[in-house]
Automatic annotation (TrEMBL):
Site (May act as a substrate filter by repelling compounds with a negatively charged alpha-carboxylate): 74
Species whose genome carries this gene: Rhodosorus marinus
Descriptive protein name: O-phosphoseryl-tRNA(Sec) selenium transferase
Sorted UniProt keywords: Cytoplasm, Protein biosynthesis, Pyridoxal phosphate, RNA-binding, Selenium, Transferase, tRNA-binding
GO molecular function, one term: tRNA binding
Similarity field: Belongs to the SepSecS family.
Swiss-Prot/TrEMBL cofactor(s): pyridoxal 5'-phosphate
Modification N6-(pyridoxal phosphate)lysine occurs at: 283
């Protein structure tokens, strides 16, 4: 209600009550004003009433909700089910125009506003998480693998003489497919194992040798990954990419929640070449699967990706990110990051005590701040089929644990040969192991329960041996 309507309300309800209601409304307006003026995360998260008020206001800006609007085009935002209308907060027009997914739509000022705000909030969240040099960000409605594909497609024009992408080995099928679906040849650079620790990471010598001998569409590196792989050597890679003038795409799938990943990107973007950073919305912002955040210190490649997208797209991922970040606020977001950092220490400790009990050890992969691995060497030496441990956990309702048996075999994925088996991230890793991840929102309780079930599963495997 505007001030005239509040004044009229005073003819119906006690003046002092209306005046209070008006103050409360005006403090909500103040929050919206700050958001639109500063385009930053609000310091404190908004309550649901404020968010809904804002969403209703936004929806009323779209033509499908104009009173008396007559739609005579082929796409007029008509939605049959009231459930679907509600689920979309009456924002039906999606985002983008045929030539640019970032473009403002004449029929949908509200939806267009959502896209811009979601991008600004994601940018601010990235800065708060450690990528302080980030200056541009966009939320796009495809998940990480597809966002990588779009990014590589967007590079095609700038790199029209190149056919090959340098792929720093990450054993995740969507990453392999992202290169192939973009229509490029994948040049695999296997990882190397650290001689002192258990860590597996970038073979910088091999990378430089390749960069020296040919030209490439880009180098694709990865930060967030399963231990014992650690983040790629992002600053060194970005220095090489600057030296050889090759674009550098960083797959930071769930690294936005990790200070270490973000610090690596920040350092790399300051001293070397990072063209774009791609991250998942669901893995980092606690929203349903469906979107990615692109961020960078220069707008060049992000803009090219937005322009490469054919047609319009769903507004849902932007809407989910906007609502969630408004609801968290800067303090809520920072608190989640801090809690996760403490929780991963708890995971290391509790996994450590299970390891001790069963004669195993937690692998020394300190540089991976999200995922932790425990050896299964003793179990294996006693003749336990280590993959059973994973299935036992799954049947006990523990999801997300991964067992990687020590294999000296090769495996072929999408026609490409991966030494050491796909999933191992390198050839000849000396031990079998099981990994667990500590990602945003996981609680100490969940970890304790999970580790309890791991203990039960291992005991059961050993008992089955005794029975034989
Ligand atoms: C999750 C993940 C992907 C794939 O992401 P989607 O969002 O499922 O496309 C790619 N790379 C890494 C490192 C991941 O963790």
């Amino acid at each position: 209600m505007d001030s005239r309507n509040f004044a009229l309300a005073q003819g119906l309800v006690d003046r002092s009550y209306v005046s209070q209601a008006r103050q409360s409304r005006s403090s909500r307006e103040g929050l919206v004003r700050q958001l639109l003026a500063n385009r930053r995360l609000p310091e404190h998260g908004w309550d649901d009433v404020t968010i809904k008020l804002f969403l209703n206001e936004i929806a009323s800006m779209d033509s499908n909700n104009f009173p008396g609007n007559v739609g005579l085009g082929e796409r007029e935002g008509r939605v049959y089910s009231s459930l679907v209308r509600e689920r979309n907060f009456h924002l039906h027009h999606g985002i983008g125009r045929s030539g640019d997914i970032g473009a403002v739509q004449p029929k949908a000022a509200g939806s267009s506003l959502v896209v811009k705000i979601a991008g600004s909030l994601a940018l601010d969240a990235s800065k708060a998480a450690g990528f302080t040099n980030a200056k541009h960000a966009a939320v796009i409605p495809v998940a990480t693998g597809m966002a990588l594909t779009l990014t590589m497609c967007a590079l095609r024009e700038q790199r029209s003489s190149c056919r090959k992408v340098i792929f720093l080995r990450i054993d995740q099928k969507s990453c392999v497919k992202s290169v192939l679906t973009a229509g490029f040849e994948l040049v695999l650079v296997d990882n190397v194992k650290d001689t002192a620790a258990d860590e597996v990471s970038t073979d910088l010598e091999r990378l430089e040798a390749l960069l020296n001998e040919d030209d490439y569409v880009c180098v694709l590196s990865t930060t967030s990954c399963f231990a014992p792989r650690i983040p790629d050597r992002i600053p060194a890679i970005s220095a090489l990419c600057a030296k050889y003038d090759v674009p550098h795409i960083v797959n930071n799938a769930y690294g936005l929640q990790s200070r270490r990943c973000m610090n690596l990107i920040q350092a790399a973007a300051t001293t070397g070449r990072v063209d774009i950073v791609v991250q998942s919305t669901d893995k980092n912002f606690l929203v349903p699967v469906g979107g990615s955040v692109l961020s960078a210190s220069s707008p060049k490649l992000i803009d090219a990706v937005l322009k490469a997208y054919p047609g319009r797209a769903s507004a849902s991922p932007s809407l989910d990110v906007m609502i969630t970040l408004l609801s968290m606020g800067k303090q809520g977001w920072s608190r989640l990051l801090e809690v996760r950092e403490r929780t991963v220490i708890h995971l290391r400790e509790t996994l450590g005590s299970v390891a001790e009990e069963f004669g195993e050890r937690v692998l020394d992969t300190e540089e991976n701040e999200v995922s932790v691995a425990m050896s299964l060497s003793r179990a294996e030496s006693k003749g336990i089929n280590v993959t059973f441990i994973g299935s036992k956990l799954f049947s006990r309702f523990v999801s997300g644990a991964r067992v990687v048996p020590r294999l000296n075999s090769k495996s072929k994925v999408c026609g490409i040969t991966f030494n050491g088996g796909f999933g191992a991230h390198c050839a000849d890793y000396p031990v079998s192991y099981i990994t667990f991840a500590c990602t945003l929102g996981v609680t100490k309780d969940e970890i304790d329960i999970g580790m309890g079930r791991l203990r039960e599963s291992l005991s059961e495997c050993y008992k089955a041996l005794d029975g034989n």
